[in-house]
Amino acid sequence: MISNEEKLKLAIKDSLLKLGIETSLDSIIIERSKEKIHGDYATNIAMKSAKILKKSPQNIAQDIISHLDCSAIEKVEVAGPGFINFFMKQECLSSTLQIINDLKDAYGSSNYGKRSKINVEFVSANPTGDLHLGHTRGAAIGDSICRLYSFIGFDVTREFYVNDAGNQINNLAKSINVRYHEAFSDFSLPFPEDGYHSDDIKNIAAIIKDEVGDKYLDNSFEAMQYFKTRGTELELKKLNADLKMFRVNFDVFSSELAIRNRGEVDNILKKLKPYTYIEDNATFLKTTDFMDDKDRVIIKSDGSYTYLLPDIAYHYNKLQRGFSLCIDVLGADHHGYINRMKSSLQMLGYSKDVLEIELIQMVRLFKDGKEYKMSKRTGNAVSLKELCEEVGIDAVRYFFVSRGASSHLDFDLDLASKMESSNPVFYAQYAHARLSKVLEQGKEYNYDFSGSLLNEDKEKELMKIMDDFPKEVLNAALQRAPYKMTNYIQKLATAIHEFYTLCRIVDGNNIPLTENRLALAKCAKQVMKNALNLIGVSAPERM
Fold first, then answer.
1. pLDDT (tens digit, 9 = 90+) per residue, 365-382?
2. Strands 155-162 and 117-121: what pairing?
3. CB 4: neighbour CB atoms within 10 A?
4. What is the CATH number of the domain that holds 468?
5. Which pLDDT score, from 0 to 100, does residue 20 have?
6. Cα dihedral 337/343/349/355 (nearest 10)
7. pLDDT digit string, tens, across residues 326-375
8. Could you tell me which of 13, 231, 265, 529 has the fewest CB atoms within 10 Å of its CB?
9. C-alpha distances in Å from residue 482, one per residue of 258, 334, 430
């Protein structure tokens, strides 16, 4: 599946080779011409080659043209200081239509990854409450990264790391214990200082009361252990339900507690021993021997582990499962975490490149022009579930990936709720729905995927944008940049709306042209659906 740009790059590379110049395809830049007079595509390669060949760019351009395979080109010309403009043959521009129709949902996919195993860990929220906006953005970006990697041929495992062994779980159990007693009208227990006040805890206490009655009113060790286990289980069940609602499904849930119980932390400690030393009764790891700015404590002076040691064991566990690359999608506050973890893995014999980390910046909500921090319903921070109820899953997913992960995101609730073209997700989905409608109107006609009659500028522009899709997918995947997909979707939507508005698609007086345009509409609808799916957004038939 070679795009028109790739065809031109290959032809130029071969022509340059005949002139004695070896160059990579990446160094040959092909751009779509903005004006019809300049053809369909253009390149500045002649100007880039001037120093090497010690000739004027115009002469080099003529030399390139004289050695060029023109089988896909109608006309080629030199313009300005040495640009080469290409006018493509009609059958070359429209050849994409048959490919799209043949591949359908697979159009844009590839075998680039060759089934290499990649692990993407994201969200990994503590099982102690609702998913907040940071988790929501991490879910949208992490899941979109997985969709993109899978689409280009990688074997992707989506993983959620459950922090079920730290102080937060102790505080969860203490909070449940208080609410459990209160469910029996016993208000004598003080609420823990670092306890969790959400309604979740009351709900869990009520469930436990229904399940076991008054069995754990004795405040025993057994009771606290049960509150830890059952509380974590119920919180995780709720988180998973919310994530599935958000169209995010995990393949693996890994438990920190299970890793500890299997002795994996002790095993890692033995492997790291050559890189440790004791100071003030605490055990330090010599991460400065590798990439870190200071050595890190892994065992405190009281004998308890810092969070780093179990995390090293967890990452070692992942790599032992055969992944060629592990990707962590984390909040921006984990910036200092990157080098200490890479250093730790190097101590265990791995390359620093086996782990890559995407840092997600914060989200701010705005409503009526003002920052919107707290839920009016609960008084707490707005949760994933509540935000989706407010503006819809599609809007949240689209907006939350529409900027690079490293950029802060201001989310305008009013804009996301608008059913008009100023709302980018509506604009894109409406393009798909419009094509669905016109295809329904033209259902009595056949489709002609030759595209031989598609000569209007807006038709050609739409075909060129659709031809770009596989390249755009590959770039977005390899750069782990779902926002590039939203940029593409907006370009595609604009081209669809212009084609729909300026070209009469169904015309009973011109059946051959109708069949060509219906084929173009069908293919454009397919590409829009494929693009939206890569960021987890639906493609509605009607709006």
1. 999 999 987 655 555 789
2. parallel
3. 24
4. 1.10.730.10
5. 87
6. 40
7. 999 999 999 999 999 999 999 999 999 999 999 999 999 999 999 987 65
8. 13
9. 33, 21, 21
Q: According to the model, what pLDDT value does residue 198 have?
A: 87
Q: Which two tokens stand for residue 3?
A: 């795009």
Q: Whose structure tokens read 């160059």?
A: 23
Low-confidence ranges of the chain (pLDDT < 70): 1, 374-379
Contacts of 116 (CB under 8 A, 6+ apart): 154, 155, 324, 325
Nearest to 301 by CA among 321, 322, 324, 284: 284
Long-range contacts of 35-41 (CB under 8 A, 24+ apart): 36/457, 38/79, 38/83, 38/85, 39/75, 39/76, 39/77, 39/85, 39/86, 39/87, 39/88, 40/4, 40/86, 40/87, 40/88, 40/93, 40/460, 40/464, 41/4, 41/5, 41/8, 41/85, 41/86, 41/88
Q: Give the contacts of 204 (CB within 8 A, at least 6 positions apart).
A: 176, 179, 230, 231, 234, 235
- DSSP assignment, residue 306? P
Range 7-11 contact pairs with CB under 8 angstroms and sequence separation of 24 or more:
7/72, 7/92, 8/41, 8/43, 8/72, 8/73, 8/86, 11/68, 11/69, 11/70, 11/72, 11/73
Token pair in block for residue 535: 């960021």
Q: Do 99 and 73 belong to one domain?
A: no
Q: How far apart are the C-alpha atoms of 498 and 502, rounded to whole Å?
A: 6
503 and 455 share one domain = yes
How far apart CA 134 and CA 536 sit, in angstroms, is 18
The separation between CA 405 and the C-alpha centre of its own chain, rounded to angstroms, equals 9
Please name which of 506, 527, 466 lies closest in space to residue 95, comparing C-alpha atoms.
466
Helices (H), 348-423: 384-391, 393-401, 413-417
Expressed as residue numbers, the domain containing 442 is 93-112+420-533
Predicted pLDDT at 269: 97
